[in-house]
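Reply to dn_fold:

You asked what the input looked like. This is it:
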Amino acid sequence: MAERRYTFVFVGAVLVAIAATFGVYRMLQATKESSRVATVAVVVASRDIPEGQGIERSAVGTNLWPVQAVPAGYFGSVDSVAGRVARVTIFKGEAIVPGRLAPVGTGAGLEVKITPGKRAMAVRINDVVGISNLVQPNSRVDVMVTIGDANSGGQRVAKLFMDNMRVLSVGTQVQRSEDGSINSATTATLEVTPDEAERLSIAMNQGSIQLVLRGYGDPENITTKGATSSDVLKQLREGQVVLPPVAKAPAPRRTPPRQEPVPAPIPALVATPIVIKPREPDSSIVHVIRGGKDSQQKVEKNDSTPPKP
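and this is what came back:
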């Protein structure tokens, strides 16, 4: 009987342990499900994609992104971006969004980089600028023209007449001369308005142009009046050197001398006179007359009271 009772107790304990284990497992699963972050597939660049280049399948892939961090307009499949053209440079790991792609049907090439309302015009640049690689795509340059001026007696005038022009591309153009030899010329493609294209064409046909490289983030407009051969000869004769204006340093600010606070007068100390009382005599003189004789006797005071200070 006792063995049967122990068997029932053992089986009950096992069932309770199994139920408790199953309950803990279900609770852990529920906690794990509640803490799991929802993700979605997003198309990202597997390598850098230059501006104006078509997107190949090998250049993109998909990664899982948290739903809260997904950019607006994202693409979820590689097929949706394959064959499109990058409007701007897309870096490795960057999500592909519609704002970085050219419109559907646009071919790869320079036309993707042209701002709406503007045109691309190629100009030849001198070998010094071209070989030194001073001008690069997306550089900002000023255009200087050297042309003959009939109003100045046929003198040639040099003037910066276009400023802050954007360079779209730089390349080498192969030309064949009259004797059959092949020459290479460096060309730069500028982004211009239709009006600027007309004036630039006149400058190239009637004179010569040169690109002047601008510093990064320099928005200053051109304020020069141009130079002629007379200005150059005059400088050579007089030996004057035109120096750029130097900004004057601001005058040092003079600080008035600091006034020290005047201390309040210290009242004079008045000495209080100390009155010293004379000490009372400790004895008295007594006159004694005996038989017509006057004699003095000194009598000591017998006073137990201490003298006053």
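The radius of gyration is 54 Å.
Hope that clears it up.
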